[in-house]
Specification:
Helix content is 42%, strand content 14%. The protein has 307 residues and is of the alpha/beta class. It folds into two domains: 176 residues, Vaccinia Virus protein VP39 (Rossmann fold, 3-Layer(aba) Sandwich); 82 residues, DNA polymerase, domain 1, CATH 1.10.150.170. Strand 2, helix 3 and strand 3 form a beta-alpha-beta unit. The longest helix has 16 residues. The N and C termini lie far apart (52 Å). One of its GO terms (molecular function) is rRNA (cytosine-N4-)-methyltransferase activity. Pfam families: Methyltransf_5 (PF01795). It is an enzyme of class 2 (transferase). InterPro entries: RsmH, SAM-dep_MeTrfase_MraW_recog, SAM-dependent_MTases_sf.
């Protein structure tokens, strides 16, 4: 039996990095299970405001009850963090004092533990419709189903290499294309079986499941996760008040690279300074308690006072 409770990664470190003052306006751009938001709310006074976003309606609904007794004004919005700029303008905030984004995605958001799945095909351990969309599949330009059933092998291999550094990218891509000639690849279970059969035996028995990287790459591609991150950082830096702080927790090297380069460029352009010369990482104790935290990296940017 697996523990399905989400554990907030770098909880104290991320909130400490924001240097929250009682009367500030703080944005949690990825509310999730509200771990960071609740600690932020504790540090805000009655004059403070917490604005929290999440693309998942369930996360917003579950959070409402958690915020019933907190001191600050809390505003919850069902929105993707890429919409940060337009949303703040819509609700009347030219600037805010701090912004946090935790780019980890919660297993329970999609139906609990990976063993249980969530109906979207995110997990290779259960047989579900192959979508991999965070929102309604009908609203996406393409889904994982489209990648598996209509993309050319070169295009499939490219995302596996670029988004997951999959060493057997072309081998897996060709196997997917060959398999679909015998019938539609409609479920996550089918896709995982194709991947497992296509890779060398040694790879099947290595440290991680052979489907892990392919599923990660498809999820990133379908949800345009890297493009979303770039849009978010640009908007966040624009919306920060002088002396405001932006803190971002990433979980894989592609995301971390984007954050690192964006922060460096902003500093070079005179917009402020990078607080974290090296990323803050979880303690050994945290990783022991929560192995999913092991790849987490926190980077922080301080907006210039006279920008």
């Amino acid at each position: 039996m697996h523990d399905t409770k989400h554990i907030t990664v770098l909880l104290q470190e991320a909130v400490d990095a924001l240097d929250v003052q009682p009367n500030e306006v703080i944005v949690d751009a990825t509310l999730g299970s509200a771990g960071h938001s609740l600690l932020i709310a504790e540090r805000l006074g009655k004059a403070g405001t917490l604005i929290a976003l999440d693309a998942d309606e369930k996360a917003i609904a579950q959070a409402r009850e958690k915020f019933m007794k907190v001191a600050p004004n809390v505003r919850l919005w069902n929105a993707n963090f890429r919409e940060l700029g337009p949303l703040l303008e819509q609700i009347g905030y030219d600037t805010v004092d701090g912004i946090l984004a935790d780019l980890g995605w919660r297993q329970e958001q999609f139906g609990g533990d990976v063993e249980q799945g969530g109906g979207k095909g995110f997990s290779f351990r259960v047989d579900e419709p192959l979508h991999m969309t965070f929102g309604d599949p009908e609203s996406y330009p393409f889904t994982a189903y489209d990648i598996a059933n209509s993309w050319e092998p070169e295009s499939i291999a490219t995302i596996l290499q670029n988004y997951a550094e999959e060493r057997h990218a072309m081998r897996i891509a060709r196997a997917i294309v060959a398999a679909r000639e015998n019938g539609t690849i409609a479920t996550s279970g089918q896709l995982s079986s194709i991947i497992e059969e296509s890779v060398p035996a040694a790879y099947r028995h290595s440290g991680i499941h052979p489907s892990t990287r392919t599923f990660q790459a498809m999820r990133i591609a379908v949800n345009d996760e890297l493009g979303v991150l770039e849009t978010f950082i640009e908007a966040a830096l624009e919306k920060l008040a002088p002396n405001g702080r932006l803190a971002i927790i990433t979980f894989h090297s592609l995301e971390d690279r984007i954050v690192k380069h964006a922060f460096r460029k902003a500093a070079a352009d005179g917009k402020g300074e990078v607080v974290t010369k090296k990323p803050i990482i979880p303690s050994d104790e945290e990783v022991t308690k929560n192995p999913r935290a092991r790849s987490a990296k926190l980077r922080v940017f301080l907006k210039a006072f006279n920008d």
